[in-house]
Amino acid sequence: MTIQNSVWLGTANLPRYDVLDTDQETDVLVVGGGLIGLTTAIYLQQEGLGVVLLEGGRIGTRTSGNTTGKVTSQHGAIYAGLLDRHGRDKAQQYATANQEAVDGVEELVRRLGIECELSRGPSFVYSTGDTDLAREAEVARELGLPAHPADPAEMGLPITAAAAVRFDDQLLLHPARYLAGLATAFSAAGGRIFEQSRVTDLDGKGDGVEARTAAGRRVVARHAVVATLLPFGTIGGYFARSRPNQSHGIAVQLPVEAPTAMTISADAPTRSTRPWPGGGPSGLIVVGANHETGGQEDTNTSYQSLVDWVDEVWGTKVQPEYRWSAEDYSTPDQLPYVGKAPGSPALIATGMHKWGLSNGTVAAGLLRDTVLGRDNPWSEVFDAGRIGDARSVAKLVQDNLKVGKEFAAGHLRRLLGPGLDHVEVGEGGLFDVDGKTVGAYTDLEGRLHTVVPVCTHLGCPLRWNQGDSTWDCNCHGSRFAPNGAVLDGPATKPLAKPED
């Protein structure tokens, strides 16, 4: 039977922390208990600052605990494009920052004594089509990265590829155990972590900031770092400057030994692989089947496409032991936003493009230096206030027109039927109840959950995600549990109930 959970979260013991029940004062408030939030908290603590970290759910259980577990400067075949679009200086900054992050993660693991299946190895990007990987290798090499043209046979994948590029000495780890180690080290050194303490408001207060949680508790700080997947609410307008994307993963055991290298395809559909130590020599993790959050009618087909790919490549039938999905955001110019949010007292980090273990580590260092008033060599390329080039502006306009169409047409989604008398176990979707559209789901214990399927961020209609049993917003990427609880922002309030 396949477990609907990240293989990492299913094989890690994350520490638990209390709910915030008293007001707090501190030097720095960090909002978000994923990779960026925890790393930033550790960095600031090491500089002698007092830090309070608030997490809306459980630390490490959302995007950071659902990653592939690759810490690498190889982000697909991107460097030739970055050079052409942004010039050598910015391409160089991005490349160097991410390669240094690989070493930075290893240094943290060693110094803090974190047991997280850390290993070094090659990472390959390959093409089965017309992607020019010869130039990609040349540009990456010129930018100082450990990149080389490679024979596709070196990957160990039983596929026919036209070309490949190898990045040497990249990093693999168990992300949930890494996050647990960061949290444990931070709290052991006096850091304050509070879970189930969702921040709903953040405002300037004198020379600092004041945050309020859904339960009405306050935290007053000199600085605030918003390290949620996307800044919550309308902070900095980043909901309109980025697009939400969902990818899917499976963990399988092959009938033969699995490839030991990391691989990713340069051509669509993306297929990313890495060894799965917990599955033994035949253990393999496959990630891909990307689509915009809320843009897939039945995400079960996304999971099945990964299974079908494994079956085709290895000529066998596999049953995944785990399957899961992760959400991330992309920016129109392919570079993350990190730094001071326009019109807000908060520092932010978002738009990691599915490479959060390296980009997020870079972001944490940049956020630390911003708090301390230090110069950082990566501040220009990650500038959180940039508008971008003409191509970026055109992309923003296009994306927001799409959001407008989604908002206008979303309430016309297909209704599964009238009334709620026959919502089958494991079934969810939109139903007509006395002329009103109701979102309903019957869980595996037979309990019926009903919600008003309208996002509490800006009122966009929601779609039922059958593969993950969530309500997803295609406008700005908020996700909700069947009972309406917020899973991912920018929304901060749970879904309304039909009887409210």
Automatic annotation (TrEMBL):
Residues 415-500 form the Rieske domain. The keyword Transport does not apply. It comes from the Bacteria. InterPro entries: FAD-dep_OxRdtase (IPR006076), FAD/NAD-bd_sf (IPR036188), Rieske_2Fe-2S (IPR017941), Rieske_2Fe-2S_sf (IPR036922), Rieske_Fe-S_prot_C (IPR005805). SUPFAM superfamilies: FAD/NAD(P)-binding domain, ISP domain. Keywords: 2Fe-2S, Disulfide bond, Iron, Iron-sulfur, Metal-binding. This is Glycine/D-amino acid oxidase-like deaminating enzyme. It comes from Kribbella pratensis.
